[in-house]
Amino acid sequence: MANAPQLQVSDEIAIEISKMNKWYGTFHVLRDIDLTVYRGERIVIAGPSGSGKSTLIRCINRLEEHQQGRIMVDGTELSSDLKNIDKIRSEVGMVFQHFNLFPHLTILENCTLAPIWVRKTPKREAEETAMHFLEKVKIPEQANKYPGQLSGGQQQRVAIARSLCMKPRIMLFDEPTSALDPEMIKEVLDTMVSLAEEGMTMICVTHEMGFARQVANRVIFMDQGQIVEQNEPEEFFNNPKSPRTQLFLSQILGH
Amino acid sequence: MSDAHAHSIAFVRMETLPESPPPARQTGMPKWLRDNLFSGWANTLLTLVGIWAIYTILSGVLPWILNGVWNASSLTECREILAGQTGACFAVLKDRWHQLLFGFQYPSELYWRPILAFFMMLVAIAPVLFFDLPRKLLIFTALFPFIAYYLIWGGPLATPLVALAGCAAAYVVFDRYGKESFAAGFLGGVAVALVVWIIGGIVVGMVASETPWMTAVPSRDLGGFMLNMMLGVTCVSLSIPLGIVLALGRQSDMPLIKGICVVFIEFIRGVPLITLLFVASVMLAYFFPPDSTVDLFLRVVIMITMFSSAYIAEVIRGGLAALPKGQYEAADSLGLDYPQAMRLIILPQALKISIPGIVNVAVGLFKDTTLVSVISMFDLIGMIRGPILASTEWNGVYWELLGFAACLFFVVCYGISQYSQWLERRLATDHR
């Protein structure tokens, strides 16, 4: 209803979540989540902390296990079958709040590790791909340094490049700019914008509402483990329907 | 007017201040002495007391060492040469040198075999310790256990060859099937190895022949520092992989594996090593088939390895726990499977954190090999306490012998410790 198909968005389904529920112990974190993501969509998930938005995208590559409902990624259902899980994970890139680069490996090794071991790409080819993506995130000159020698913004860009090296069909971003200094947020967002412009399917948990306006074709607002409202960004920001959304927006855009 | 200036907060700096050198201070020896040794009356007093203590110790020990007698055939002769003066009787080391190193039963015309094995060991562990060396050297490292066995124990060449063939067959099977299913590869490998060993054992029994310079030496003839080195090297190199497996097993989601590992670790850690050694020497025979004669050396190796692997497992578990959860998640999210994630991401980091703890256990284990003297194996300490001190010539030469033993162990343990510090610096890539 709300998501009128946009120009770049195809009608091929990338992710389909239906009636998904998740509990931590007895705490009901995700309640009846229904979400269909089409290929090429750029979705921003917003919401107060503890609303389950990170948990939702972590369920998509099974870093968290859901207890009820169904998640289909690229036509494969997520179940406890390890083969399926590894297959989906190699198709779905993930960028974390705290980068999670491997500190004992150089930047280049960080980027080539998964292609070499999971995709069985020859080392030389993997290195070429890695350098290509490092150039894209504008840090090829750091390739032989270790993550600890880079700034936070650079590390996050490496993390994005590392995910891209697997040539994923879907990218998940879990608050990619929340651990960064204000000066570095822009460089990471720029990278994400250029990625979006190339038609990557993206789901992004973030508090960067400027980014949401500029890039997203759909904004989802979550609260208390449920999807409260979703809409095109213009409508979402200018004309929020639910009082909970109105309150949230007034709080984060208010100052 | 001046008030207005004082309250003004607007300020603009147009150029950067030039760098200036640090203030000139006194440097050199006098300053160092004053800062470190004589900075106050209390420190001055402590310095003087320290100098007096060092003087007292050295004035006692130095004459004893420098005045030492190196050529004598018994303690009595030493005393005659010294004629009442202070002095050590190092002649015992010279006289019993071979016994201290090889024990008193190893045939003296075969000493070249353990010596050769020792130097080959240095070559074999080099690529393991220093990973900048060419990786091809690891082939020699893999062959070394079989070569060393053949050199030290001698006997028919077919025995180590059959052992090697079994291991090679197991490796081939694991390499072939381990990729699809780890369990299938592992169990298949073990089964194939057992088959090769059993068939090989029968064949060896029939064709056994030994060359004259490769005479078989039974385990009970091994002794001296050689025995300590053999036990130390074998048990450390076996207990690190076993410790890793136990640590990972203890973290497993599978209750059976986790349970086995927890019970093993907790049980072994709760029992004194001496007890385990007595079990090895006396009781372990009950667990083997009645007519099998499992070598005492092998039984001791099994017990010490079990003991130290339990400790190493706990050290590594600490390293695993110290890794941020994000590392596991990042490895998972890239699609690495469990063995890959462990081998490439988790273990390299966890082991690096665990280096001081592992080295601690390794050094302790190496020194604990002297406990085998209690179950009447004649290692370095066993030799000193037994055949040497009990002999009529050298009865009473405690300081020299035990001091020598201490020096030997210190050199090896200090070497291990220095290596581990070098390794930590070499692996420090996180720039924290």
TrEMBL record, chain A:
GO molecular function: ABC-type amino acid transporter activity; ATP binding; ATP hydrolysis activity
UniProt keyword list: ATP-binding, Nucleotide-binding, Transport
Domain ABC transporter, chain residue ranges per copy: 15-249
Highest taxon in the source lineage: Bacteria
Pfam families noted in UniProt: ABC_tran
Annotated signal sequence range: none
Family designation: Belongs to the ABC transporter superfamily.
Protein name: ABC transporter ATP-binding protein
Species of the source: Marinibacterium profundimaris
From TrEMBL, chain B:
GO-annotated biological processes: amino acid transport
Residues annotated as domain ABC transmembrane type-1: 225-420
Chief location bin: membrane
Annotated localization: Cell inner membrane; Cell membrane
Keywords: Cell membrane, Membrane, Transmembrane, Transmembrane helix, Transport
Transmembrane segments annotated in the record for this chain: 41-66, 110-130, 158-174, 186-209, 229-248, 260-288, 300-323, 344-365, 371-390, 397-417
NCBIfam families linked to this entry: HEQRo_perm_3TM (TIGR01726)
Protein name according to UniProt: Amino acid ABC transporter permease
Lineage: Bacteria, Pseudomonadati, Pseudomonadota, Alphaproteobacteria, Rhodobacterales
